[in-house]
Design goal:
Blueprint: H1 2-17, H2 37-52, E1 64-67, H3 73-80, H4 84-90, H5 109-118, E2 122-125, E3 151-152, E4 156-161, H6 167-175, E5 192-197, E6 203-208, H7 216-224, E7 228-234, H8 241-253, E8 257-262, H9 271-279, E9 293-296, H10 305-319, E10 322-323, E11 330-339, E12 343-352, E13 355-356, E14 360-363, E15 366-374, E16 383-384, E17 389-395, E18 404-408, H11 411-451, H12 460-476, E19 489-496, H13 499-510, E20 519-527, H14 532-541, E21 544-548, H15 554-563, E22 567-570, H16 573-587, E23 591-610, E24 613-628, E25 632-637, E26 640-645, E27 647-652, E28 655-656, E29 659-661, E30 665-670, E31 681-690
Parallel strand pairs: 1-2, 4-6, 4-7, 7-8, 8-9, 19-20, 19-21, 21-22
Antiparallel strand pairs: 3-10, 5-6, 11-12, 11-18, 12-17, 13-16, 14-15, 14-18, 15-17, 23-24, 23-31, 24-29, 24-30, 25-26, 25-31, 27-28, 27-30
Helix pairs in contact: 1-2, 3-4, 7-8, 14-15
Amino acid sequence: MNVMSSVMRGARWLLHADLPLLCTAQRPAPLLTCPSRSSASKQVRGQMNQERNPKVKLKVDRQEVEIRQGMTVAALALAMDKDSDHVLKALLNTSVDLDSLEPDSVLEDRWIKEAVTRSGMKFRWAKLSTSRERPKQDAQRRPPADPSLLVGRPPVVTIMGHVDHGKTTLLDSLRKSQIVSTEAGGITQHIGAFLVQLPTGEKITFLDTPGHAAFSSMRARGANATDIVVLVVAADDGVMNQTVESIQHAKRANVPVIVVVNKCDKLQADPQRVKQELLAHDVVCEEFGGDVQAIHVSALKGDNLLALAEATVALAEVLELKADPSGPVEGLVIESRMDKGKGPVTTAIVQRGTLKRGCILVAGKCWAKVRFLFDENGRTVPGAGPSAAVEVVGWKDLPSAGETILEVESEQRAREVVEWRSHEEELVKLREEQNAIELKQKLHLEEYHRERERLTHLNWRQRRTALYRANKSRFSMRPSEKTQSDQLSLPLIIKGDVDGSVETLLNILESYDAQQQCQLEVVHFGIGDISENDVNMADTFGGSIYGFNVAASRAMQQLAARRGVPLRLHNVIYKLIDELKDELSSKLPPLVSRNVVGEARVLAMFDVTVGKKKVPVAGCRVQKGQLDRRLKFRLIRGRETIWEGSLAALKHHKDEVQMVKVGMECGLSADDDVDFRAGDIIECFEELDKPQVTSWDPGF
């Protein structure tokens, strides 16, 4: 029975192992042929051992690492998804000097491949990315026109000079208007463009620029857009700062000058002194042998204005001003602003071609399809030829003042130009940022090497251990990014009515040089009235809103009041700057000044027992003023201050007193352990807080 069970068990093993039956072809096999018990057991054990120890090698996919030339240790570790230590370990027992390797050390190509191979990985070289240069799609000015196509055009005349010398009043008298009465503070704060037709029939386009010191950029823009500069100087005031600046602008733009000596009707007027002062600035009038015309006028009374008009027309004829009225339009943005009903609006001077409704214009990174053209009086005009000043409506965005206007053939072309210019500007910014990053990396690397010079004698393992210990406390004590700085700061939101106003305010703020007292930061600027976004931004940054010639609705005023956001609106620029200086000064801590009230000399020293403690007491005589126990005292020995603090007691004879006057003797003890000596001086002083004023001087 046992034999039979063994035979059956062996048969099952054979069937399970799929072993071949041992048969012979010559003889017929029996119905069941099986080996002996011992041989069957050996075969089964051998088959089971094969199953446990297979000889078939499984294919393992190795990690592939993308490498390139000039990789640093840190870059290779990042590509391998390891740390820098792994790269150093992979290069052990090679000729690489591991002690000199840092995370930013550049590896040779053979060591890059060696480190990857030793790590059990495959490498492949990175493909070189070839960036194609983008074709230039910018719009360009046309080449000079055929002289046969040129026709005469009116001169563009810019009126420049010092503030309050009568520039706008002169223009009012020429065009019989009252502009000056409508201007805030009685001073011009924008560029105004006007077409004036003289009684003789000639037309002149005048640009009225601000004379205040703050508007230097506007004056420069006016000089660059003009043919003739009329320099207005008050006969009773003479050559001033902005007069000199206007002369410099005219010289840089290579524009001829006509000197107008205004306010000649005043008793203090001295035109000769004015012309002599101009000699110091290379402005030589005709009576001194030069080629500059000088006209004496009174803009307020209208005296001698015809002579000024004739001088302007004569100079224009000498210059032979001509332009091509045909073809695509070219011009210059004089000013830009946001209008509630019209949207973005620009004041432009046409320099070439004829501007009409439907023209597609490009200026900077903005484009427009002209919907309306308005003259200086707000009347629509069908077109504007060379030298005409018009308001253009139809801009998609607001271009900056000073941008060149060019006409293109279609809206698609305009979008291409704007997109190309935006792309070029981004590239310039990227290059600037890259240069800044490289400079910062260079400085950081220099500092990094300086800090590690003392560790050069250690091997790389010891050096890393030492650096870890040195930096452990530094990193654990690193302040949080949300920690507020102790540095005082004033974030600003700047809003203006036109682009030139905002540009002027930003130019003024660039002159801020009191950063050591209080940081001044412009977090946002824009054109238009105060919006909810402005209030929210000021609330977020804890700043103030300054608006120039803009309004804030009642809802915005209430929102700013609820949020505690200062809202400061002005229509005179120097008043805005004065309030900004006051706010900067209010943020500064007060200056503490000391006022000496009295002085006493120590005559003798003695100890007084108070309870179980001996207290040193100084016997003194008051020499100056009086000693007041409620104030502070200091002990002076020679020229050195030994002690400063308060008194514990002040006695006259045996009585506690609050005050001891000059000539009286007293005994006093300090609230600290002080070593009084005979001959010491004790001063009584009071501390007074004096408001600190910002040191920033914008120059006006």
